[in-house]
Amino acid sequence: MRNFDYKKLAEKNWDNEILLLCSKIHEYKGRQELFIRQKPAQLGRLIEIARIQSTEASNRIEGIVTTSTRIKQLVAEKTAPKNRDEKEILGYRDVLNTIHESHEYIDITPNNILQLHRDLLKHAGFSYGGSFKNVQNYIKETRPDGTEIVRFMPLAPYETPGAVEAICRSFVETAALEIVDPLILIPAFICDFLCIHPFNDGNGRMSRLLTLLLLYKCGYEVGKYISIEKQIEKTKDVYYDVLQKIDYGWHEEENDVTPFIKYNLKMILASYIEFEERVGVMDNSGLKSSAYDIVKAYADNKLGKFTSADVLANCPTVGRTSVFNALKKLTEEGYIQKHGERRHTFYVKTSKSPW
């Protein structure tokens, strides 16, 4: 079995793109922390939206789907699951809630990873939930003619417990030494987790949940307010392409984790940027702009049609009544045009709006 020593990451010369991405994320992190301290009460709806989007997006990547309405009801615990997909969605919701609410108490150990995996699959009733794989799994690739080939063979079941123990131990030791930026250390850990592929099922979802957990534990809580999983789902073609590259030479300790690190950094940075866009427009004095200004700014930056639900989701600091009042005023001013009625209502910018 290969060795795992993340302290070696401190000896690597990272390229300018990675260093710049890390620097930008540190900058955004500082601004987010300031806003959270100043305006904590305004972020409740943002958290609610992020949980729904994370649950929906991460499962959809794996082909586990239901309607948007059902997702909202399931996340809000207002309905019971109707099928296996919805049971698996409930499991993701539960683990996501655990990470949001208790991350500081969850140490990075094999036992805790097993417990999270157990909770991920418990509603679906899979017998292997909370256990490492008991059969050899394979990473397969489908060719254009429809045939499948084995592209990568993860570790054998008998090697898996020791490997997971090794990556957890090395991560904790390296993080404690503070010799590697957590933004580099975290994707390196997740890369090895995916190559070990420790479970019969749920490896992809667990990798994204563990990414959130590790980010939270290292002080990067943007995923609490903006769905990183949605950022991944929106760029899943790139995501799959990067995943295909991370295992070349992995067994020989010759794989290159750089593309995976860059991809993760870009998704984290995109989430921080979206956070600042969503918390509302700030004027030069640092005071919060009016509801009208925030909705107007959203309309300015929106290409194509949008609904009141879109505004509510993207302007979480503005209340429902204020959003509708702002849309009504903008319509009366001719700044936007209203189309349709009731549930089919949508809006578009007019020529009076800047493009």
Automatic annotation (TrEMBL):
PROSITE patterns xrefs: FIDO
**Which residue ranges does the record assign to the Fido domain?**
108-266
| Superkingdom of the organism of origin | Bacteria
InterPro entries per the UniProt record, alphabetical: Fido, Fido-like_dom_sf, Fido_containing
Q: What is the protein named?
A: Fic family protein
The organism that produces this protein has a lineage beginning with: Bacteria, Bacillati, Bacillota, Clostridia, Lachnospirales
